[in-house]
Amino acid sequence: MNKEKRDMLFNQAKDWVLEAGRNIRHKIKDPLHIDTKSNANDLVTAMDKETEEFFADHIKGKYPDHSILSEEGFGDDLNSLEGVVWIIDPIDGTMNFVHQKKNFAISLAIYEDGIGEIGLIYDVMSDVLYQAKHGEGAYKNDIPLTPLDKDKKFEEVVFGLNHFWLCENRLVGEKYMQQFVKDVRGTRTYGSAALEFAFVAEGVLDGYLSMNLAPWDVAAGMVIVKETGGVTTNIDGNQLSLLDKDSVLTVNPSIQERLLDSYIKVGRK
Ligand code: IPD
Ligand code: CA
Ligand code: CA
Ligand code: CA
Q: What's the short name of a Pfam family annotated to this entry (predicted)?
């Protein structure tokens, strides 16, 4: 994508993200309309749908030849990332939205022919926008994020993961992940994959690991993390397809090998 097109789409996407965020803040005290999806803890609210519909209507109205990949059903059924694709999670961290009314984000990415061009992650209640354009660095609001520490010491790592890694699970023996938790300085669980990606880009987390994420959970985060020198793969170290769900590791490369070799590969089921 040329710079002029990227800048134009970035400015438009940013305006829509900020507008959608203002709408959510304005209605944050309204009564919630909550449904469940795959199970009783898989929540969706009218606000998730309203926000996604806002993006879909605006994108389809202005860019009818672009495609949309999104969580709540207003996007397209895609089996390739050809052309310009907007990958959107209208509210990432719906459980936080419902229970805490904070700590959730809008995640919006624009890819062209599979290449991540634009990433926006908006922490709505804090009014903090993480943003990146391919090859142009990443920003928190308008302040550039610094490149990740190339010599991160494993003993000083602060790492994002949820507690299911410490329970019996289908991917990695829990005793290996328990050892990992003991070996690093600290672990954190925030409940929004998009924000956890943003924190990795910012260097306030040194990595984030998830068992199963969808393209809209990771697409914007991957663009932003890459701009500060982070890498994103599945737990076997392979590239993500961005068309299917997969396990995800986004991480400071200086700890990637030890994490994969000493804990994940040895414990892999
Ligand atoms: C969820 C959040 C959560 C992660 C889940 C995601 P949602 O997204 O990112 O942190 O652990 O796997 O599905 O459903 O709130 O958009
Ligand atoms: Ca969801
Ligand atoms: Ca999500
Ligand atoms: Ca969501």
A: Inositol_P
